[in-house]
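Support request, please re-run this one:
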Amino acid sequence: MLQNNSIKGFLGGFLAGGTIGAIAALLTTPKSGKQLRGEIKQKSGEYFEEADKYYTDTKMKAGEIINEVKRKYTTVMTDAESKPGEILNDAEQVYHDAEVKTKDVLQSGKQIIEEEAKKLKSSVEAGIDTRKKEAKNY
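Re-run finished. Output below.
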């Protein structure tokens, strides 16, 4: 449960930072108000769509992992009456498999967020550079 809250918090922070960065980049470029508002709305929508897709995918993968762990747990418990010596080994394997898969999902999510952060940083830097060039021309 704690990891789920951490992921939600991180994702929320990522969205807020991405939106603020995009707005800052757009505000520093010389454009009409209507055009600027349209671009802000478009960029915000894109970031929210990407984050929503990531969250949905991660939630689905986590659900699949949980279902798989439940199936294995049920199998282990059914066999518990007839195979007491194997219970501990099976339970340890189930735990290990769930731990590895969860780490893989989180690592994948981390990589996606890092890539999006790089894109956002490039966008902000390009906006700042454009603003500086425009300021020099005036």
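Helices lie at 2-27, 33-80, 84-137. The chain has a mean pLDDT of 77.
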